[in-house]
């Protein structure tokens, strides 16, 4: 398949890099997405997600978090506004024909904004999740705020809204690797560059969106890979290095990312990076 042209909303003089978005989405689904499973499990356990839950997943990606909620009996709706490739993979996981899977009751997946998930026959949602971690890219909370504004009218009064973010840099081994993105993208001096997570990132987004913070937690989410090549593919699939790719080129980013991963490679060739992620539970007023 011919790689798809990715255009960054950044000002730079060099050519726009070409990235195969389908390969990127598959790497996210097959390698990287599972790293956040402990986060999903901790949230679902704390909020007692089950057969009475009507869940709206914002930025649902390739659908692993939704699948885990569905196995608990929840009725799930996923909205993916930015990656039709990931959404296609979510449909393969969760919806019936043409992939031959049995339909899961109450499952809806859609491209667009939360408002596209609204209709007169759908009851209000009892839980809203935004599991795509923020607090790592400059300006990454702006898009989340728009999603939350669209989701609030669809949720019950008092319904929990879960936001996720990177933990403190000193608790996230991956932070040292992500600094490669800062070093390479720094000449752009614009949104999209990596920055350390801040303590109140999640609370600020919730308050700007008119939500009431009501508890938080931290979860260990180690990043483990079979080898350095898998680690590079998985990390690139997050999109955190896109500004660096725009500023330089994919080969340069691959080279420096590979070098940055060497300290975390074990004698058997696997790569292991302990991390802590944080989640905030906020309430719809």
From TrEMBL:
Gene3D superfamilies assigned to the protein according to its UniProt record, in alphabetical order: Vaccinia Virus protein VP39 (3.40.50.150)
BP-aspect Gene Ontology terms: methylation
Domain of life (superkingdom): Bacteria
InterPro entries (alphabetical): SAM-dependent_MTases_sf
Molecular functions (GO terms): methyltransferase activity
Keywords for the protein's UniProt record, in alphabetical order: Methyltransferase, Transferase
Name of the protein in its database record: SAM-dependent methyltransferase
Higher taxonomy: Bacteria, Bacillati, Actinomycetota, Actinomycetes, Kitasatosporales
């Amino acid at each position: 398949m011919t790689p798809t042209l990715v255009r960054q909303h950044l000002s730079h003089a060099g050519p726009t890099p070409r990235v195969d978005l389908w390969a990127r989405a598959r790497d996210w689904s097959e390698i990287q997405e599972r790293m956040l499973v402990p986060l999903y499990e901790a949230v679902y356990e704390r909020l007692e997600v089950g057969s009475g839950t009507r869940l709206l997943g914002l930025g649902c990606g390739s659908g692993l978090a939704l699948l885990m909620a569905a196995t608990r009996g929840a009725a799930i709706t996923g909205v993916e506004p930015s990656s039709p490739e990931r959404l296609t993979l979510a449909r393969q996981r969760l919806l019936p024909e043409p992939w031959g899977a049995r339909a899961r009751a109450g499952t809806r997946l859609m491209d667009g904004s939360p408002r596209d998930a609204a209709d007169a026959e759908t009851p209000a949602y009892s839980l809203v999740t935004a599991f795509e971690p923020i607090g790592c890219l400059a300006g990454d909370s702006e898009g989340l705020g728009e999603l939350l504004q669209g989701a609030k009218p669809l949720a019950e009064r008092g319904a929990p809204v879960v936001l996720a973010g990177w933990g403190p840099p000193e608790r996230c081994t991956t932070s040292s690797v992500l600094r490669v993105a800062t070093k390479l993208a720094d000449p752009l001096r614009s949104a999209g560059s990596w920055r350390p997570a801040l303590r109140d990132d999640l609370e600020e987004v919730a308050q700007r969106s008119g939500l009431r913070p009501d508890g938080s937690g931290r979860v260990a989410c180690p990043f483990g890979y079979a080898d350095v090549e898998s680690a590079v593919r998985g990390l690139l699939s997050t999109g955190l290095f896109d500004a660096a790719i725009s500023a330089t080129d994919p080969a340069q980013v691959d080279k420096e990312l590979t070098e940055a991963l060497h300290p975390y490679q074990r004698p058997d060739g696997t790569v292991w990076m302990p991390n802590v992620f944080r989640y905030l539970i906020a309430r719809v007023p």
